[in-house]
Amino acid sequence: MLTAGVDTGSLAAKAVIFDSEVGTVVGSACLATGADPAAAGMRALQMALEDAEVSIARIAATVATGYGRGVLPTADWRVTEITCAARGAHLLDAGVRTVIDIGGQDSKVIHLDGDGFPADFALNDRCAAGTGRFLEVMAGALGVQVEALGELALSAAGPAPITRTCTVFAESEVIGLLAQGRTAAEVAAGLCRAAALRVAQLVAALRAEPRFMLIGGVAQNEAIRHELARVLETELVTPAQPQLVVATGAAVVAAERVDPRWSPTK
Ligand code: ADP
Are 190 and 159 in contact, with CB atoms under 8 Å apart? Predict the structure, then answer.
């Protein structure tokens, strides 16, 4: 059976086509959400179908998730990102008990039970610190793309001290540090450390236990992965495509609802 998962996030719309017979994603897409989340979600779904080389008629069901889940016209069900993140992580690694999801405008820590369902979660959606948006604004201040920030940070001899995590004040601090002669790499390292510390505070707020999995677009930043593992003193599993885990979980939920006898770990 083929199912679709569409995760329309604050910054990026992701879609996957999932084959429940083999338990893998067979097509995917990711694009900017922009100002029209319904259109972005539908475009991501269409692109994922093209990537999988299948027509919509072959899709048994579609689950929409993400902040734009309410507006996806063709969704059969709408499910929270918390549940979808848990189901996606469980599909990829049934030993995971804590999922850390760093997205565009929020970060979440989800504690999973032994069956891969959310038991508890902590959410930061009040402040951009420790989110993709914070890193995007700071990358802009350093004159680099956000995709290059991690590599730049890892090239530094050490991190410059970033004392402010409020995006507006941190941007002024970055400009000040550069004016004092700190290199862009040192400032990038300081920013990644500050963002990781912020996420670690959220982890500490929850009864987090290993194994940890890091997901969301920001999980592609290798300096964040490194800093977070260091402050949490644990290994972090990072899947090959961390930004697609929530959409994958949505497609898993779709398969479970169509066929309640099907299980992602059998
Ligand atoms: P949302 O679901 O809230 O839209 P995502 O989980 O899709 O968020 O993550 C979006 C964020 O991921 C962006 O803010 C950006 O900072 C970050 N990001 C995307 N691609 C990369 C990359 N290649 N390297 C580092 N960060 C990235």
Answer: yes
pTM above 0.85, yes or no: yes
Report the separation in Å between the CA atom of 243 and the middle of ligand 1, taken as the mean of its atom positions.
7
Which atom from ligand 1 is nearest to the alpha carbon of 139?
Answer: 16
- 131 within 8 A of 105, measured Cβ to Cβ: yes
Q: How far apart are CA 246 and CA 227, in angstroms?
A: 23
Q: Which residues line ligand 1 (CB under 6 A)?
A: 9-12, 66, 103-105, 132-133, 135-136, 146-147, 150, 216-218, 220-221, 243
| Segment 109-167, tens digit of pLDDT | 999 999 999 999 999 888 888 899 999 999 999 999 999 999 999 999 999 999 887 88
Could you tell me the strand order of the sheet in which 98-102 lies?
A: 118-124, 107-112, 98-102, 212-215, 236-237
Alpha-carbon gap, residue 39 to 31, rounded angstroms? 11
- Alpha helices by DSSP H, listed for the chain, are 37-52, 81-92, 132-142, 146-154, 167-179, 184-204, 222-232, 245-258
> What atom in ligand 1 is closest to the CA of residue 14?
7
- Residue for token pair 């999980």: 219
Closest by CA position to 213, among listed 79, 108, 119:
108
200 HSE (CA, 13 A, CB side): 18
Q: Which two tokens stand for residue 4?
A: 């679709």
Kindly report the protein residue whose alpha carbon is nearest to atom 22 of ligand 1: 147
Q: What phi-psi label fits residue 240: left (phi over 0), alpha (psi between -120 and 50 degrees) or beta?
A: alpha
DSSP letter at 244 equals: G
